[in-house]
Amino acid sequence: MEFNPKTQNLKCPFCDTEMGLEEYKKQAGTDASADEKSSAKQPANPDEEIEGYNIYSCESCGGEIIAEEITGTATCPFCGNNIVVKEKFTGKNRPDYVLPFKFTQKEAKTKYKEYIRSKLKFLPNAFIDENHIDQIRGLYIPFWLYSADVTGEGSYKGDKIKTWKEGNVEFTETSHFDVTRKGNFSFSNIPVDASKEMPDDIMDTLEPFDLSEIKEFDMMYLAGFIANKYDVSDEEAYPRAEKRITNSTHAMLSDTLSSYNSTNTVFENIDIDKKKPDYALFPIWFLNTTWNGTQYLFAMNGQTGEFVGNLPCDKNKVTRYGVIVSLISIVLIYIVTSIFVGM
Amino acid sequence: MTLIFSIILGIVIGVMITKYTVNQMMKPVHSETEATEYVANSEFTVQDDVFVNKSVSKRRAD
After folding, report:
1. DSSP-derived 3-state class of residue A287
2. Which residues, other chains included, contact A342 with Cβ-Cβ below 8 Å and sequence gap of 6+?
3. Residue of B nearest to A241 (CA)
4. With an 8 Å Cβ cutoff, is A299 touching chain B?
5. CA distances from A74 to A11, A100, A108, A166 (A)
């Protein structure tokens, strides 16, 4: 069975039968083998270990699958069965939440084409003409969701400036203030990706995720997609969340000083009380394409459809654009300057 | 003189607009440094503004 993002049900790719997750679980409960068949076991023999990889046996056909240690789901190359490596998502490895896919693979391809069409101005023609997608993968990316209670306080020197004219004399009055600010702020569910292989900037750009649609973790949502266990621990990922919390608290304190013409910070203290983070899997479509020997990676938020990726630039198109803009600017500036000089 | 000034300024503006447009359009990936959209609650407990003194300066307006 595969999870269908459109209907949010499980669908059989062979006979198109669909059923809800609860309904499937009920059936699986009466037929325990159904759940077993969609899982894989790690053989007990440690001699079969390869560094960085694990060997699993498919519960459906018995075929052996070699996969990276962090791999959580795979497709059996022998029988095509979608399998979930249960131990990667149980016990202490069990995610708290999962955000199900809402966009299908077909929709991800359409979004990619729309994205390319919107960038035609600077894209090399050869890239557009020869463009093809090497690989498209639906991945559940592990994320830590950080929440924290923050106390921010600061002391500032603020100046308010007033000017007026009396006759031909201009007066400037500067009022000096001692300003104190203190506030309590609660941050909730700041996502930080917990995967070493995912570029942090791409993951950041795909935000925001709509967490009102988040579900309690259930392995059924993973069926038909790739999912990996986290390989960046909560402590390793936290500095990224901490930086965002600190910057945001500073910004909120600074926002209250907007009535002053100028301010100087005497001191500022931001105290973060971090709570235990939640572990969640978020849906991302990844597309790879190659041009001139360079690989380009694109990603789409599988829940909201937000699409990002860097593209190659055609230097000739950029130069042509620059020349046209410069010529227009020269003509406009010449006309405006001539009018003023002539006055 | 006007023509030379227009050419120099026009080229500078043209380069700046082109750089900005290319960056906006082709390099949309960025690292997030703030998290204001994840603020569930915010409350200021102290907002004191204490007047210290004032100074006045004057100058001839041209």
Report:
1. strand
2. none
3. B35
4. no
5. 17, 18, 20, 81
For residue A90, what is the enclosing H or E element?
A: none
Residue A13 has pLDDT above 70, yes or no: yes
What distance in Å separates the CA atoms of residue A217 and residue A143, rounded to the nearest whole number?
Answer: 13
Distance CA A38, CA A229 (A): 18
B27–chain A Cβ distance below 8 A for any pair: yes
**Touching check for B36 and chain A: CB below 8 Å?**
yes
Q: Is the pLDDT of residue A213 over 70?
A: yes
**Does residue A269 sit at the B interface (CB-CB below 8 Å)?**
no
CA gap A19, A6 in Å, rounded: 13
Q: What is the CA radius of gyration of chain A?
A: 28
Name the pLDDT band for A148 (thresholds 50, 70, 90).
very high
Alpha-carbon gap, residue A159 to A262, rounded angstroms:
5
pLDDT in tens, A273-330: 999 999 999 999 998 888 778 888 889 999 999 988 888 888 899 999 999 999 999 9
A-B C-beta contacts closer than 8 Å: 186
Report the C-alpha gap between A210 and A187 in whole angstroms.
15
User: Which of A132, A126, A118 is closest to A308 using CA atoms?
Assistant: A118
Q: What is the DSSP letter of A125?
A: H
Alpha-carbon distance of A200 to A191, in angstroms, equals 11
Cα B33 to chain centroid, rounded: 17
**A176 and B43 in contact by Cβ < 8 A?**
no
Domain boundaries, chain A: 2-95, 105-312, 313-343
Instruction: Give the separation between CA A126 and CA A291, rounded to whole angstroms.
Output: 9
Chain-centre distance of CA A279, in angstroms?
Answer: 15
